[in-house]
Structure formats: C-alpha cells, structure tokens
Amino acid sequence: PPPERHRWFRAPHADASPEMWRVLQRYSFTNVLCDVFANDTVISDPEFIAQTLLSLLHREGGSIVVIHVPERGFREHNLRALHMFLQ
C-alpha cells in the first residue's frame, strides 16, 4: 500500500477559530504545534537562533520547528540562521 499522506497546518499564533477547525476537518488537515520555536521575532542573532534550535531538537523522534520566513528588509537574520541550522 502507498504510504499514508499527512496534511499538516499550523494556525497563526497556534490559535484556530471554530470556523478554521471546520475547514481543517473538511480538507483532512491536522493542526500541529511545534516543540522547537526560534523566538526569532525578538532575537536577531542568527548563530544564537541556530544553536538554540539544534540544542532543542528531539533527534530520535523528530521535532516540529518554527522559524519565520525571512524577507528582504525584514527578519533577514533568519536566512543565515536557517542556513546554519540546516548545515
């Protein structure tokens, strides 16, 4: 049999409204939280972010990591942090 397909969604600020829950159910999404959060909205040191994320990972069982998407002129430090994290 083919592997089971999972459809994951993370509600903004981990807050899903009743309407959002109905849509998630309708389209077979599972609302997930994270166990490793970069706190990159207040920390801008990419080395600190990457090292902290790496230290919090559950290497045997896996982790769900949240790091915000970098944009030109906004959270650009996350691009370097993400690069270091993935190395």
Please describe what this structure looks like.
This protein is α/β, with parallel strands linked by helices and 87 residues long. Helices cover 34% and strands 9% of the residues. It has 3 helices and 4 strands; from the N terminus they run βαββαβα. The strands form 2 sheets. A two-stranded parallel sheet has the order 1-2. A two-stranded parallel sheet has the order 3-4. α2 runs parallel beside α3. It is globular and about 40 Å long.
Question: Helix and strand layout, with pairings?
Answer:
Elements: E1 8-9, H1 18-26, E2 30-31, E3 36-37, H2 46-56, E4 65-66, H3 77-86
Parallel strand pairs: 1-2, 3-4
Can I get a quick summary?
The chain is α/β, with parallel strands linked by helices.
Task: Note the main attributes of this structure.
87 residues; alpha/beta; globular; two-stranded parallel sheet; two-stranded parallel ribbon; 4 strands; 3 helices
Mean residue pLDDT: 90
Profile the largest sheet.
2 strands, parallel
Task: Outline the low-pLDDT stretches.
Answer: none
**How many helices does DSSP assign?**
3
Strand order of the largest sheet: 1-2
**Secondary structural class:** alpha/beta
Radius of gyration: 15 Å
H and E string: EHEEHEH
Report how far the terminal alpha carbons are from each other: 34 Å
Percent of residues in helices comes to 25-40%
Indicate the proportion of strand residues. Answer: 5-15%
Shape: globular
Number of strands: 4
